[in-house]
Structure formats: C-alpha cells, structure tokens
Amino acid sequence: MSQVKAKKHLGQHFLKDENIAFNITEALSGNGYDHILEIGPGMGVLTKYLEKNPKFTTHLIELDNESVVYLAKHFPDLKARTYQGDFLQFDLNKITTGKLAIIGNFPYNISSQIFFKILDDKDKVPECVGMLQKEVAERLASPPGNKNYGILSVLLQAYFDVEYLFTVQPDVFDPPPKVKSAVIRVKRNQVAKLDCDEVLFKRVVKQGFNMRRKTLRNALKSLNLPYDNIEPTILDKRAEQLSVQDFVALTNKLSH
Ligand code: SAH
What we know:
Strand order of the largest sheet: 4-3-2-5-6-9-7
Helix content: 25-40%
Number of helices: 10
Shape: elongated
CATH class of the largest domain: Alpha Beta
Bound molecules: S-adenosyl-L-homocysteine
Order of helices and strands: EHEHEHEEHEHHEEEHHHH
Low-confidence stretches: none
Mean pLDDT: 97
CATH topology of the largest domain: Rossmann fold
C-alpha cells in the first residue's frame, strides 16, 4: 500500500527506527489513566505499539487527511477513535471526562503550544511523553541559572516533573529534520494550586523573561506593582536565576 507523502507545512518527518518507536511508547507509565491520545500518528509507527498495550485505550488525532485514510486502513480497530483535526483546537473531554495521557512524535512547529495546552488542562493530563526538537526539550527540562530556562520551563515545572529521556539523531526520520530531536516525559506533580495568586504568577514570569537580560527591577517595572516588600538582592537578579519557588515568593511580595 502506498505511503503517506511527507508534507513540510505539517511538520511531517516519519520515524523509521522501530527500536526508538518502541522505547518512546514504553516511556508511558500507564498509571493513573485509562485513555491516551496520540498526537500526529502519521503512518502509525508508535500507534502499533500503543494499540497493543492493555493498560489503556488509544485514541488518535491527526490533521492530515492522507494520514487519516492510511490509518483507517492499517488500524481498523482504531477508526472510531481517530479524530481528524488540529490538536490545539481539540476538546479533550470529547475522549473522556476522566484522565487522559498524551503521547506523540509532535509536529515541531507547534510543540511549545502543545505544552501550553497541556498546562491549560493540567488536572486532566497526568502524563505526557513527546518527541520534539532537542532545543525545546532542553528548555522545558532546564533548571534555573541556565540560558535555556524560560517561560515555559517555569510554568510547566510549577505543575509537572519534567524528565529529559534521550536524544534522537535526524537520520532516523524520513525526511530527516534539520534539527536534533529529544524525547521528554512530563508527569503531573502534587501541587494542586500554587501558594500565590496564579494569574499574577504567570504575568510576573512572562514579564520577567520578556526582558530576560534585564534585572527584575527593570523588567517588572511595567507591571506597576510595589517593590516595598522585596529585598534588593532579589530585584538585582534576572528572571533566569529564579526557581519556581522564588517566583511564587516574589509574586506574593508583589501582591501585598
Ligand atoms: N508519529 C509519526 C509522524 C510524526 S510527524 C511518526 O513518528 O512517524 C508529525 C505528525 O503530526 C504528522 O503526521 C502531521 O500530519 C501531524 N500534525 C501536524 N500538525 C498537527 C496538528 N495541529 N494536530 C494534529 N496533528 C498534526
């Protein structure tokens, strides 16, 4: 049967290495959920391992019509659980009102947005295993004090434990992407709610990193919040030097 023709605008790079495919699917713990959603299954290199796993029921979302037709032929049992559409617009409650894990070799052009969406649904998504460009994976997993550490590192790490699992070279894909790839796993942590105003927390993190080379004193000026309670040693720092807990403490001081 003919193969799906790779389309650049959909970020299609098909994984050819079965060992890597298997290892990605094995990275899902299977604990704490009965359903999983695979984003962008393409020709189903991960799907065939997921479908066999008795720990969960597999659902698929794929934007590309040609891939959806291919999947229907090769995975007839999944046809009723295959959605054609954009993951970013997809209502996860359509699959289950319960918990749902997410997996995929993600389309790299939307990998950050995928994690912002997972954050929006953080109490529904206990776990996510994804392959994305190495640089973004490093950012998500980065500790403070590092140039990779940014907005999504802080926001994601506030609610999820992020693990960088392994690096994947371009030559195992068809066509090979221009960048290296990496697989990460994120698991929901125990934090039900941050110990501060969460809306303000987000604003502080975003504003701090938008001017990441400036001190927080300067970067946060436009928020027009009082600095009275804040030690100068904190204000002299830059956003990338603050841990999640430091941002929580700073948010509290800014809201008094
Ligand atoms: N999982 C396959 C394909 C990875 S390429 C493999 O490993 O070989 C990324 C896949 O995501 C492509 O099949 C592409 O069509 C799909 N895709 C791109 N944008 C998407 C979106 N917004 N929502 C869902 N799927 C998308």
